[in-house]
């Protein structure tokens, strides 16, 4: 697997694009009630002109287990139809070291995001576990 910077550069060049599409399924504004199907329609319409998708995890978490299942289906769908496109987990995680470590494992090892948003408010130990994933979008990969 190429590192994050290489993956982003390659897809940006291939699609001649810096467009990142946010996947923020607000149930009150969606045309259909099925989050995964809603996202798939967006992905189908844009996968050849974007360099990244950015699911905002709060919208999926707010739906409970069905939302998390929709997130999993969305990630799997992106990987299937647009494997070169970057997936950014918009989670804004930031907590004490041990909790940050668990978040990093969840975001990278479980969900498989290429990069995530973090909140450094609690200091370096709140972001360091994310930085340890040097093949991901962490600023350390060269």
Describe this structure in words.
By secondary structure, the protein is of the alpha/beta class. The chain has 6 helices and 4 strands, in the order αβαβααβαβα. It has helices at 4-15, 35-46, 57-61, 65-81, 97-110, 128-131, and strands at residues 20-23, 52-55, 86-93, 115-118. A 4-stranded parallel sheet has the order 1-2-3-4. Helix 5 (97-110) links the parallel strand 3 (86-93) and strand 4 (115-118). Helix 2 runs parallel beside helix 4. The longest helix is centred in the middle third of the chain and has 17 residues, at 65-81. The two termini are 14 Å apart.
Tell me what portion of residues adopts beta-strand conformation. Answer: 5-15%
Unreliable stretches covering 5 or more consecutive residues: none
Number of strands: 4
Overall SS class: alpha/beta
Radius of gyration: 15 Å
Amino- and carboxy-terminal Cα gap: 14 Å
List the helices and strands and how they pair.
Blueprint: H1 4-15, E1 20-23, H2 35-46, E2 52-55, H3 57-61, H4 65-81, E3 86-93, H5 97-110, E4 115-118, H6 128-131
Parallel strand pairs: 1-2, 2-3, 3-4
Helix pairs in contact: 2-4
Distinctive features:
142 residues; alpha/beta; four-stranded parallel beta sheet; single chain
Short overview:
The protein has 142 residues and is of the alpha/beta class. It is built from six helices and four strands. The longest helix has 17 residues, at 65-81.
């Amino acid at each position: 697997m190429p590192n994050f910077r290489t993956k982003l550069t390659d897809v940006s060049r291939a699609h001649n694009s810096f467009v990142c599409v946010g996947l923020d399924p607000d149930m009150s504004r969606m045309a259909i009630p099925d989050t995964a199907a809603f996202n798939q329609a967006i992905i189908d319409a844009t996968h050849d002109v974007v360099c990244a998708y950015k699911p905002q995890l709060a919208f999926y978490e707010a739906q409970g287990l069905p939302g998390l299942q929709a997130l999993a289906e969305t990630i799997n769908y992106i990987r299937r139809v647009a494997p070169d496109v970057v997936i950014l987990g918009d989670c804004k995680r930031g907590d004490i070291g041990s909790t940050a470590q668990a978040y990093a494992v969840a975001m990278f090892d479980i969900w498989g995001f290429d990069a995530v948003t973090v909140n450094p408010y609690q200091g370096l130990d709140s972001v360091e576990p994310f930085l340890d994933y040097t093949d991901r979008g962490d600023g350390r990969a060269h």
